[in-house]
Automatic annotation (TrEMBL):
<dbReference type="InterPro" id="IPR036866">
    <property type="entry name" value="RibonucZ/Hydroxyglut_hydro"/>
</dbReference>
<dbReference type="InterPro" id="IPR050114">
    <property type="entry name" value="UPF0173_UPF0282_UlaG_hydrolase"/>
</dbReference>
<dbReference type="InterPro" id="IPR001279">
    <property type="entry name" value="Metallo-B-lactamas"/>
</dbReference>
<dbReference type="Pfam" id="PF13483">
    <property type="entry name" value="Lactamase_B_3"/>
</dbReference>
<protein>
    <submittedName>
        <fullName>MBL fold metallo-hydrolase</fullName>
    </submittedName>
</protein>
<feature type="domain" description="Metallo-beta-lactamase">
    <location>
        <begin position="7"/>
        <end position="174"/>
    </location>
</feature>
Length: 213
């Protein structure tokens, strides 16, 4: 399996000439969807989903399928793709990948904003993407895609999450709001935790890929 980081919170997984994209929002490159057979979307915030972009992708490939929570499915009503609503505990096949839905809610954010639905995804028992939440997956996680910066996230919470999950590998997501100074802090904290846990924890730059399995 090949994992490629795109801007902010978007990743692309590829194996056997098939591609699956997670959270292609407005801060990520549109090329992430090129040739993708399926899309997973964790929640409705614009940095994770862009309906117009998905409409264009579905018009280019009518076989495109999307798996997401009910709130996002409602917002995508005008997208001509097959849209599947999934909930915590559901398991399904998408583009040749075996996926399990994990979690229900976004982390608490601004006190005047409602907490929206948020579903994380475990892909092929290898990659866990929690979306905008620090959801305990309840199983061993070889590769964790960990949010490292957000209005709802403290650095201490990130470290506590890494120590709770204890993945073999962890790569930064949700880092598109940071300048070079902030990215440097993320790099340092992940390096320190990598050394402590004897695991591969780091930030991939947009366009950078790693091979898993």
């Amino acid at each position: 399996m090949k994992l490629t980081k795109f801007g902010h919170a978007c990743v692309r997984l590829e194996k056997s000439d098939s591609a699956l994209v997670i959270d292609p929002g407005s801060f990520s490159e549109e090329s992430a969807l090129d040739g993708a057979r399926a899309v997973l979307i964790t929640h409705e915030h614009f940095d994770h989903v862009e309906p117009e972009r998905l409409r264009r992708a579905a018009e280019a490939d009518p076989s495109l399928e999307i798996w997401t929570c009910e709130g996002v499915a409602t917002a995508l009503a005008g997208v001509p793709a097959e849209i599947h609503v999934v909930r915590d505990g559901d398991a399904f096949d998408a583009a040749g990948f075996r996926v399990k839905a994990v979690g229900e809610w976004h982390a608490p954010n601004h006190p005047d904003q409602p907490i929206v639905q948020n579903v994380g995804f475990m892909v092929d028992d290898e990659v866990f993407y929690p979306g905008d939440a620090l959801t305990p997956p309840g199983v061993e996680v070889p590769t964790l895609l960990a949010p490292t910066n957000a209005p709802w996230l403290k650095g201490s919470e990130l470290i506590a999450y890494l120590r709770e999950v204890r993945p073999a590998r962890a790569f930064s997501t949700h880092d598109g709001l940071l300048n070079e100074i902030g990215l440097g802090i993320v790099d340092r904290w992940l390096a320190l935790e990598s050394e402590k846990q004897q695991a591969d924890m780091r930030r991939l730059k947009p366009g950078e890929s790693v091979t898993l399995l």
